[in-house]
Amino acid sequence: MSAAHDDELASAYVIGTLDSAGSEAARIRIVEDQAFAARVQEWETRLNPLLPEEQETLPEGLLAKIEVAIEASGADLPGTVTRRAGTGEWTQVYPGLNIKVLNRIEKLSRQTIMVKLDAGCEYQSHEHSQDEEILMISGDLIIGNLVLGPGDFHVAHVGRKHPVHRTNTGCICIISQAIDW
Fold first, then answer.
1. Tens of pLDDT along 5-38?
2. Which domains can be identified in the chain, with CATH numbers?
3. Phi, then psi, of 55 in degrees rounded to 5
4. Which residues make Cβ contacts (< 8 Å) with residue 6, sequence separation at least 6?
5. Whole-prediction pTM value?
6. CA trace torsion 161, 122, 91, 93 (10° rounding)
7. How far apart are the C-alpha atoms of 161 and 133, rounded to whole Å?
8. Residue 150's CB: how many other CB atoms inside 10 A?
9. Strands 161-162, 146-148: pairing kind
10. Which ranges of 16-115 would DSSP assign to H, the alpha helix?
11. Do residues 173 and 137 lie in contact, with contact meaning Cβ atoms separated by under 8 Å?
12. Beta strand pairing status for 171-178 and 110-117?
């Protein structure tokens, strides 16, 4: 893009004349392109003296409401999704086994889930239609004779059969796997 085009885009962004798609594209460029971010900063510096000296007082609590809305949206960076701790719904898929879907990629038939197993939980042997990756967060997960603990990473390759899974203490882990149900 030309310097003139970047200058025009930066000024339009600062004065607020872009449509929502244009504003989003400009926000993404500000994050990803330092030169463009500098142009936006230059325009903000040029236009600041035109603002009225007396700013209107915002209604009490408005900033806090805006911050809550932004956090609830899950949008931290353009083109990303953030799942905040304590958000999302747990779904029981087996007695003592609950999951929270973190991300799904339907076209790849793949998902990343957080799994919570209650102490003493055991679930059946199963096969894998894609590689399954497990990252342990807390507790113990026993797969056959293999014992996994916090920080351990385990991969079961496509076509392999996992033996029975069980936990003595309960556990939380992150699993990236095929969407099979």
1. 888 888 888 888 888 888 888 888 888 888 898 9
2. 3-73 (1.10.10), 91-178 (2.60.120.10)
3. -90, 145
4. 35, 36, 39
5. 0.58
6. 60
7. 13
8. 13
9. unpaired
10. 20-32, 34-47, 62-73
11. yes
12. antiparallel
